[in-house]
Amino acid sequence: GPMETAVATRGQVWHRRDIGHGTNDEAEWQALLGALDVASELGARDIVLLGDSALIVAQASGTAKPGPFTSFHASYLAKAAAFNRVRIRRIKRAQNLAGIALAKGWPR
After folding, report:
1. What is the pTM of this model?
2. Segment 61-79, tens digit of pLDDT
3. In the chain, helix, strand, coil percent, each to 5?
4. What is the C-alpha to C-alpha distance for residues 104 and 81, in angstroms, rounded to an integer?
5. What are 77-98's pLDDT values in tens digits?
6. Residue 65 DSSP SS3
7. Pick from 9, 44, 30, 16: which is nearest to 73 by CA?
8. List of residues 6+ apart from 57 with CB closer than 8 A
9. Are 13 and 7 a contacting pair, CB within 8 Å?
10. Closest by alpha carbon to 47, among 77, 80, 74?
11. Which end of the chain lies in a sparser environment, N or C, as judged by fewer CB atoms within 10 Å?
12. Residue 104 contacts by C-beta under 8 Å, 6 or more apart in sequence?
């Protein structure tokens, strides 16, 4: 379906709407790549990325093969190389501030 992403850092949310159609995993990869873009724009050099998708965190950290997401993984590695250090870890959905920001945009 339609994809959108959010990145939350420093008390601010960067929301990207209408980024095309795809799966939830593709949207998670887009969010991860967007987080690297935001960190770069902010001049960060040592970053910790937090995500609630076990699959994407495992693929990005190298503990799972990227499978059909090889191009996303290659983009991630290329962008991450610009930083001094990039760490990524999984958090619970209820702790994901970007996910919470996205959910607020949808009627319940």
Report:
1. 0.91
2. 999 999 999 999 999 999 9
3. 45, 20, 30
4. 33
5. 999 999 999 999 999 988 988 8
6. coil
7. 30
8. 51, 88, 89, 90
9. yes
10. 80
11. C
12. none
